[in-house]
Amino acid sequence: MSGPSASLRALRRSAEQRLRDAGVETPELDARLLIEHGLGLTREEVVLNPERSVSELDAARVRALVERRAAREPVGRIVGQRAFWTIELALTPDTLEPRPDTETVVEAVLALLPDRKAPLRLLDLGTGTGCILLALLAELPNATGLGIDVSPGAAKAAARNAALNGLAERAVFRTGDWGAGLTGRFDVVVSNPPYIPSADIAGLQPEVRDHDPLRALDGGPDGLEPYRIIARQLPGLLAPGGIAALEVGQGQAGEVARLLATSGLCEISVLRDLGGVERCVRGRNGLPVG
Ligand SMILES: C[S@@+](CC[C@H](N)C(=O)[O-])C[C@H]1O[C@@H](n2cnc3c(N)ncnc32)[C@H](O)[C@@H]1O
């Protein structure tokens, strides 16, 4: 990599090459993000001023970050945060790194809400960083939300993310086992539960297998165990007319739709993510409107 007082351009090129050689899928993007983070620069500063000189000390700091990425640590873990929808979320070892596909759940809910100013009650089961709940609260100015996670560390991280995004007044996070013991009814219940079949976990990419918490991934023998529990709980959690939206893994939408139908939900629909994969199953408690 670059020597003393290298240019930003040279540092960027050598970082990209190192990541490419290590088999990282998006070397250009990852190199830029690590340089921004390592040098404390904005994207504009990195992109528009490639001849800027970088001290050896700064270059060494970036090289250390690049080596972590070359060892397959995800960029979000290295920089400690991740953008999701319109918000920024801090990550900890207790939280799954939010994925862009999960924004499908946010879209699925918003599309069914005719009045975004309504005082809705939201529930997020398996909240992790709080990403789904906080993204929805950011769009629904009079809504309040409860996020539940079995991991006390995740519940704590989500509460901190609520504060970071100015949403702490409207969000509460608690440790719990899905919807067990919850009282009251919710207008919206969302969840992105663990859905990887246990036997598939060893074969996941190292970025996921070695850095996301196991209990955020493991969905039991067929990956569907959490859906069976949540589907059973939904009729007791949803207000009349309330909406449930669940993220699903590839190939799981049909079975999850059946589980929701068996629980008595109606208006069941499946939404695809930007890659065209069936990613969210949505249903309503009560008779179809109209
Ligand atoms: C796939 S992650 C999703 C996290 C976050 N909602 C997101 O979309 O990025 C699943 C989450 O469910 C939590 N979880 C696993 N088992 C649970 C249970 N029995 N009750 C509540 N949460 C659970 C995990 O700790 C993890 O945070």
What structural keywords apply?
single chain; 290 residues; alpha/beta; Helicase, Ruva Protein, domain 3; Rossmann fold; 2 domains; seven-stranded mixed beta sheet; 11 helices; 11 strands; 20% strand; elongated; binds S-adenosylmethionine
- CATH level 1 name of the largest domain: Alpha Beta
Mean pLDDT score, rounded? 95
Span between N and C termini?
65 Å
* Radius of gyration, whole Å: 21 Å
- CATH third-tier fold name of the largest domain: Rossmann fold
Order of neighbouring strands in the sheet with most strands: 7-6-5-8-9-11-10
Silhouette: elongated
Q: What characterizes the major β-sheet? A: 7 strands, mixed
The ligands bound in this entry are: S-adenosylmethionine
